[in-house]
Design brief:
Blueprint lengths: L25 H14 L4 E2 H8 L3 H13 L3 E4 L4 E4 L1 H11 L4 H16 L2 E8 L2 E8 L14 E3 L4 H7 L4 H11 L12 H14 L2 E4 L6 E9 L5 E10 L8 H18 L7
Antiparallel strand pairs: 1-3, 2-3, 4-5, 4-9, 5-6, 7-8, 8-9
Helix pairs in contact: 1-3, 2-3, 5-9
Organism: Aliigemmobacter aestuarii
InterPro entries: GAF-like_dom_sf, HTH_MetabolicPath_Reg, TransRegBhcR, Tscrpt_reg_IclR_C, Tscrpt_reg_IclR_N, WH-like_DNA-bd_sf, WH_DNA-bd_sf
GO molecular function: DNA binding; DNA-binding transcription factor activity
Length: about 270
């Protein structure tokens, strides 16, 4: 009896899981790298992009013009300073439509901002980093600012540590192995032992604290949002300057953030871990 070959899933080539250079489109990879650099800046000139990417001016210009035709980038006069365009926003917004968390978190975040007087943030893990997907800014003149699309290390982020605290130990170890524990301030956690202690305290009290670990003079208090399986899928936080958010305030703020995160968990059909 001749055994029939098992068909591959439709739409996937044989090399679907092969991410080596032979299966990447170099021009597309180059263009996306340019887009990422523009997204992380307040605008760059053609020569600056060429120097930053170690590509020729002509190569960078062709990639930018291609992206420009799709609205992904735009050039600002005078000086031909390039910026991310509206097309990139439309494409990026599709990511937010994958989940109801952003929509369901909006009201709890607005309420949290009004109750605490500080900026409320929503973030998820992406590529072993925290990706901020939504923010409700306080009206205070001095405030924290994490625009949607901002990314940062997990070990020095309130939201990052809120997620890590409920991740399986092997997942935490993998993230640390790949990303390391970089020092940003004198209060940054830079050892696995110290991180494990901090995450244990986070689980015990129900919320995480970033005590000026990423940026001096800024504190953050965060709590996780869980899915239907009791797994952490996002984090909610309030952040502000240390002179307004004192360590003595973190317990009170932590209870408020924890309650807001729990409301989002309930609103999205999630459940607390057993």
């Amino acid at each position: 009896m001749v055994q029939k070959p098992v068909p591959r899933p439709r739409g996937r080539p044989k090399a679907f899981h092969d991410k080596t250079d032979q299966n990447t489109v170099q021009s597309l990879d180059r263009a996306l790298s340019l887009l990422e650099r523009l997204a992380a800046s307040s605008g760059m000139t053609l020569s600056e992009l060429a120097t930053d990417t170690d590509e020729s001016v002509a190569t960078v210009y062709r990639a930018l013009v291609t992206l420009q035709t799709h609205g992904m980038v735009e050039a600002e006069e005078p000086g031909q300073v390039w910026h991310v365009g509206a097309g990139a926003f439309r494409v990026g917004s599709a990511f937010l439509r994958r989940t109801k968390i952003v929509e369901r978190a909006r009201h709890p975040m607005d309420r949290l901002m009004r109750e605490t007087g500080e900026t409320a943030n929503l973030g998820v893990e992406s590529g072993d980093q925290v990706l901020f997907v939504s923010q409700v800014e306080t009206h205070q003149a001095i405030r924290a600012f994490f625009p949607p699309g901002t990314m940062g290390p997990m070990h020095v982020s309130g939201i990052g540590k809120a997620l890590l605290a409920w991740y399986p130990p092997e997942k935490v170890a993998g993230i640390v192995a790949r990303r390391g524990l970089e020092r940003f301030t004198s209060l940054s956690i830079t050892s696995e032992t110290a991180l494990a202690r901090d995450l244990a305290r986070t689980r015990d009290r129900g919320f995480a604290i970033d005590d000026q670990e990423r940026t001096e003079g800024m504190r953050c208090v965060a709590a996780p949002i869980f899915n239907a399986h009791g797994e952490p899928v996002a984090g909610l936080s309030v952040s502000g300057p240390a002179f307004r958010v004192g360590l003595s305030d973190t317990a009170r703020l932590g209870e408020m953030v924890r309650a807001a995160a729990d409301r989002v968990t309930d609103a999205t059909g999630g459940s607390q871990p057993s």
